[in-house]
Amino acid sequence: MAQVIRRLHLSRRTFLRGAGASLALPWLDAMTPGLGTAPKPPLRTAFLFLPNGVNMSDWTPQQSGRGYDLPSSLDPLSNIREDLLVLSRLAIDGGRAHGDGPGDHARSAGSYLTCAHPRKTGGADIHCGISVDQVISQAIGKKTRFPSLELGMEAGRSAGNCDSGYSCAYSSNISWRTPTTPVAKEVDPKALFARLFGDPDSLKTAAAQAARQREIVSILDVTLTDARSLRGRLDRADQAKLDQYLTAIREIELRIEKGKKADGGKPIPEGLLDRVSGTGSYLDQLRVTYELMTLAFQADLTRTITFMIGNAGSNRSYRWIDVPQGHHSLSHHGNKPEKLSMISKINRFQVEEFARFIGRMKKIEDGPGNLLDHSLVCLGSGLGDGNRHDHMNLPMLLAGHGNGTVRTGRHLVFPKNTPMANLYLTLIRANGLRRQGFADSTSPLKLS
What we know:
Largest sheet: 7 strands, mixed
CATH topology of the largest domain: Alkaline Phosphatase, subunit A
Helix content: 25-40%
Structural class: alpha/beta
Distance between the termini: 52 Å
Number of helices: 11
Oligomer: single chain
CATH architecture of the largest domain: 3-Layer(aba) Sandwich
Radius of gyration: 23 Å
């Protein structure tokens, strides 16, 4: 008599557990019901913000539709061009002055996801709008451990004057839970890791911490027994997925710990870490954050993320790509070729790292397809030309297939002054929300 093999079935909400720690799992075939069809994968949505605008001449393709040529700043997208859209001529009217005078950088961030006009104030009476990510999060956030994640590369003040009479709250935040409540972002990858997967240090006794002072303590250590038990009950395909996921978490831990070391591998002097935001170099912090975003989506810890790659008006220099001048200073280029060239270098670097992130998502299996198939990721800015402080012709990339709702591989050129809110309304509806409008939207964009 042939042996009957019973297929293991896991709940999508299964966690690895041990010694007070819990670790979410990625999608495994064992989570598909034994009889019937697999559930539709959830849609993940991310919004990434670039400060100071871009060099539009090196960003905007000359041709529309399919078969367009990638300009120099977008050339790193060549391997994933069929997985994204380049969107041109979208506008955010809320970013314009409307009689308030200067302060375009603060308005560019405050209006980026709200499409609202920020109130010009340096006091506590800030007022903007509800951001698109929070509209989505408030509707679907209860389905995941974290309703949304707000991330960034630079800390920022929540009060005080940061741009021509505008509160620092506008420059430092793009996510707004209510018109008067911005959602603070996390800028330290180590803290983000602890938030997502648990703090390894807190799971050890004082004696154990002392004994392993020079060793790297991993969250995986306390869930390893449960992982081994589960692995033995999975088929080979799921075993490979589990191994890949756990290895990725371990590699991020190692990179974070390595980034916390000074020259020669010696620990950074006590107290210095309190003055260091993030982990290691800017580049390593950026890549680790992207990796953590990928893992958060893969494990379905959240379905909505915002990421400020720089605060509005950021004057960071990029010496590792031979740009020693400050970014904000360069954005006031006055059409000088050498400054425009530096801006293009920064933009190309930003796109390279974005392409790395999207390429990583594309390689991760996620139910019937990959993670990118079930995601929509925006990369853009609230300014077009940083010198002109243009809010009416904004750069925007949209990567991912959105569970089949987006037909990618094209450069779409919309009529002049098409509201950015139209794009956001499209993404809101892609998440299953029945809304007639968002901010100053007129109609959803046709992206399929």
